[in-house]
Amino acid sequence: MIKVRDELNCKEYLARKAVANTIDAIKVSKKGFSNDALAREHKLKSGLASNADQHDIAIVGGGMVGMALACALSSNPLTKHLNVAIIDSNPALGRMDGIKKGELPDPRVSAITPATISFFKDVGAWQYVQENRHAIFDQMQVWDYTGSGYTRYNAKDLGKEMLGCVVENKVLHSSLLSCFKDKDFHKTIYPSRLTSMDLLSRPPAKGPDGNSGDSTLHSRGSSAKLDLSDGNSIYAKLVVGADGGQSRVRELAGIQTTGWKYPQSAVICTVEHSTENQCAWQRFLPSGPIALLPVGDNFSNIVWSMSPTEALDRKTMSEDIFVREVNHALDYGYGPHPRPGLLGKDGKFSWEVPPKVVKVVSERMMFPLSLMHAKKYASNHVVLIGDAAHTVHPLAGQGVNLGYADAVALSKIIADGISVGTDIGELSLLKKFESERKPANIMMMAILDGLQKAYSIDLGPFNVLRAAAFSAVQHISPLKKNIVSYATGEQKWPLFL
């Protein structure tokens, strides 16, 4: 049972204290308190401060990646005994909101890889995704505006069942939350924000009597004190920053970042077709890529990168004009349809026209694009995962998959540490996580950044080189299989490493 902490009002407190005076003992089950009120009474009678809780791990950020880590920990025999806190002010975590049937698709979606799907199955969250709208796709077409370069991926031709699955972020989050709720696991959700963090960098000095000096953190067996916006404080052995690109944990831990802003913003929205879309489409335009991703039924998701000025214009223009511009961008606009090239004379040319968009069924949202990478993922008793550690360009939909891979790796590292008796907040243990995930994330970031820059150049000779690269991918099967294996998470490194 998940405990959601809030302050007791004065009357409730006095009433409970009066009851406590007439009871000799309060029985508390070994696997946790049955409700928050009993937990508070027990703390009062045992002399513990009523505004402090002690945990093994405090996950700051209860979004998709933070909740994925919690589910991973609760599913591993070596870590499911841990006492885990999740700190997030999102009220949906306390209400356990479900997905309403018949709702139009939300514009915020993720294209998750087969590797991510396997993780969801392993922790028991995939069954919840299947109960809601999602779109598995086994084909993908990528082409550019010159008419010279294109490639088409078909899962069957590559010996795979699928290339990926497009799911609304709210469905992914709700599925992980439902899975987390159903786990027999020591868990507490704090609907609050992290305001400050104190870390114990070294053991407290010993006094004349040989005993350790006064240290609240040390006496509690914890190494971090987290102060919350509601006035409460909690203690933990390990703090995990899963709180996004503007991470408060990263800021308080003093971890620096590197990166830059792209001269682009993304416009996203949900659109409707007259027929169902079963393919993922992406076209590279002079100002940035446009993607059309199936989300189930006759709906697709648009992710269109362009200059901030263009993005603002397309966000605010009338729906009819926007629909016309989308179809223009996906069809003949900006240049001709792809045509067979020098390597396309073997009869394998199979470029297809994307389905026509007939209606916009969601708000159009606009986001600035940037690349950010933390200079380190771990410090003493603190570790970063997901967007708190890295953000990437959305052109390949890899952002959330990198975050899920972080969660999987960190949960395994923690389990390995427990198996040999290592403190879960020990820096040497957390550095193992960093050494595993940092090179992999940097490689993906470099590839995506390279693609973004390559398609920002509109120059004749460079266009020819790009077209040749497209043709090579389309007609050299081993190369295509390698790219797909890497992009879907099946293969850790691309071919050239």
TrEMBL record:
One GO molecular-function entry: 2-methoxy-6-polyprenolphenol 4-hydroxylase activity
Subcellular location: Mitochondrion inner membrane
Domain of life: Eukaryota
Cofactor(s) of this protein: FAD
InterPro entries xrefs: FAD-bd, FAD/NAD-bd_sf, Ubi_Hdrlase_CS, UbiH/COQ6, UbiH/COQ6_monooxygenase, UbQ_mOase_COQ6
EC number in record: 1.14.15.45, 1.14.15.46
GO biological process: carotene biosynthetic process; xanthophyll biosynthetic process
Biased composition (Polar residues): 212-222
Keyword vocabulary terms for this entry: FAD, Flavoprotein, Membrane, Mitochondrion, Mitochondrion inner membrane, Monooxygenase, Oxidoreductase, Ubiquinone biosynthesis
Pathway this chain belongs to: Cofactor biosynthesis; ubiquinone biosynthesis
Reaction catalysed by this enzyme: a 4-hydroxy-3-(all-trans-polyprenyl)benzoate + 2 reduced [2Fe-2S]-[ferredoxin] + O2 + 2 H(+) = a 3,4-dihydroxy-5-(all-trans-polyprenyl)benzoate + 2 oxidized [2Fe-2S]-[ferredoxin] + H2O; a 2-methoxy-6-(all-trans-polyprenyl)phenol + 2 reduced [2Fe-2S]-[ferredoxin] + O2 + 2 H(+) = a 2-methoxy-6-(all-trans-polyprenyl)benzene-1,4-diol + 2 oxidized [2Fe-2S]-[ferredoxin] + H2O
Membrane topology reported for the UniProt record: Peripheral membrane protein
Enzyme class label: oxidoreductase
Any single Gene Ontology cellular-component annotation: extrinsic component of mitochondrial inner membrane
Major site of localization recorded for this protein: mitochondrion
Domain FAD-binding: 56-331, 361-440
Region feature (Disordered): 199-224
Quaternary structure and interacting proteins, as annotated: Component of a multi-subunit COQ enzyme complex.
Family: Belongs to the UbiH/COQ6 family.
PANTHER family: UBIQUINONE BIOSYNTHESIS MONOOXYGENASE COQ6, MITOCHONDRIAL (PTHR43876:SF7)
Role, per record: FAD-dependent monooxygenase required for two non-consecutive steps during ubiquinone biosynthesis. Required for the C5-ring hydroxylation during ubiquinone biosynthesis by catalyzing the hydroxylation of 4-hydroxy-3-(all-trans-polyprenyl)benzoic acid to 3,4-dihydroxy-5-(all-trans-polyprenyl)benzoic acid. Also acts downstream of coq4, for the C1-hydroxylation during ubiquinone biosynthesis by catalyzing the hydroxylation of 2-methoxy-6-(all-trans-polyprenyl)phenol to 2-methoxy-6-(all-trans-polyprenyl)benzene-1,4-diol.
Name of the featured protein: Ubiquinone biosynthesis monooxygenase COQ6, mitochondrial
Organism: Papaver somniferum (Opium poppy)
